[in-house]
Write a structure and sequence with these properties.
Oligomer: single chain
Radius of gyration: 21 Å
Low-confidence stretches: none
Structural class: mainly alpha
Number of helices: 15
Distance between the termini: 15 Å
Largest sheet: none
Number of domains: 1
Shape: globular
Order of helices and strands: HHHHHHHHHHHHHHH
Amino acid sequence: MINKIFFFNVIWSMGSHILSRGMLLLSGMLLARNLPVDDFATYNFFIMTATIISNYSSMGLGVSSSRFFAEKKENQNTLILGNLYSISLILAIISSTLTFLFIDKVWSIETYYKWLISATVFFLILNIVPTGGVMGVEKYKDLFFLSIFNTFIMLIGVFITIKTNNISIQIYAYILSIVFLISAQSYILKEETELFRKVENFIIRKNAIKEIISFGGVMSLVSILAATAPWLLGKIILDKYSSLYFSVYSIGLQWFSLAMFIPGIVSRLILPRLVKQYKVDNQSKKEVRLTLLVTLSVSLLFLIIGTILSPHIMNWYGKEYTDFHEVIILFFIISVIYTPINVLGNIIIIKVNTRSWLFITSIWFVFILSSVYPLMSYFGFLGALYAQGIAAILLNIISYHFCRKKELI
């Protein structure tokens, strides 16, 4: 697994992730400093809500695409690949329509924003298969250059938004960036597979659907649980406290995502390679432990740097946020705790089965929801972060002991 190709994939994927996350952080800082707190909170909750709806609707298509494009690249079984695209289109139409009809049940917004969030959901779901597919065929160098263009689109949107003081401009820029990724990544897959050479590849086939659902159906539930937890915590904070506290929570999540970039890269890279090597030989325990050690070391380094810079980080967002630097530290600590889970989870999924990982994830999810209110009643706003941290410790313990029991590490 750890060879020259894998090493360069890590480098290119790292660059792509840094550009993507760095763009989100920079745009967040600029928007927070130049827009009212309520507008910044509205934008963050808009993106968070659209993302969770797309995760609800994805049916595990992301991890399924990564697996099947990696697995089927050699034998060109394009029926499954085409059916992935067809399913995503159907789900995008259904989900965007339901979003428009029912979004006001959980969030009171104007009709204009209902159209925008519905369009965002539509394109987010359409982008799931191309993104997973490009990772499956391991075209990480191409992803890096796409991230550069995508960064320019988002930053142009930020500057126009600030100039016009209209947050909807940034939402348009976000939608445009997704459309660009759908087009560019689909072109890459066209060059790498036989997928787009026959229209028949996109006709729904019973056997192909059965194979996709057998793997992705369970993983869709995992994705739903993983996406729902932070959204629910954000909604609780927004309802119980104020837009300012929710904005602080959103900022913390962005830095958490940046701190998780090495574990996230390993997670995205390790799945296609595990799939390809599964029929040849078992994953080396030594390499797994080395991967865990490297990712954990990087996360600890981020924690040290983040702790030192935390007062300055919040200053970058504006005077309203300067008193919340401990939130950044807590999110960096949480990222360290979550780091091993990326590797352990992928190994459980591939080497055992997806149902085992769903069960473990369900325990994590139930613990967060059952502990957040008691912790918030005692610690206030920070109780939501403590709930995430303690749940991550529990998830680590269970995952580690499961892997040890199955002799996977």
